[in-house]
Protein: Quercetin 2,3-dioxygenase
Amino acid sequence: MRTYLIAGEIMHRDGLGNVQAIRPGEVNWMTAGSGIVHSERTPEAERRPGASLFGIQAWVALPKAHEEAEPAFFHHAAAAIPKTESDGAALTLIAGRSDGLVSPVRTYSDMVYADIVLEDAARYQVKAEHVERAVYVVSGALEVLGQAGRFEAGELVVFKPGAELVLRGAGATRLMLIGGEPLAEPRHI
Structure:
């Protein structure tokens, strides 16, 4: 389970004894493996009228050989997470590799998991670095150059394997890029 916050604060607790706050730009990366108990809650001090909490929680399937791995938890400070920015497009590489960057977050398979923020009309090229890729539109709207239509907040856009695409923000847009190599066998989460 991967937790990435955009606004607010959450307190993580688990059966391994970890107690860790997570704030915007930080990454909590937990591997359930053979089993773990955990909770993520808003800290008491943050439970007030008007408080904001917004984040993305993603579950990543483990390769069959690692599905019974020892449970683990790692916290990564925002300063340790690689970032790049160019021409109105900002990328924060949460896990994996992309755009010449490599995240310090340990994964069991080759993947990409990135937070991308586009200014109005800014472009981002999705390279064919990974076979399977998709973007989840968190806010705003997205156009894929050379294709008709736009994709709105709450939509998941799955790309054809091997395709190199250029995305354009239709207004201020935030999206999550996810992908990796196909796993050898069907996985269930």
Notes: The first strand starts at residue 2 and ends at 7. The chain has two domains: 1-74, 80-178. The radius of gyration is 17 Å. The chain has a mean pLDDT of 94.
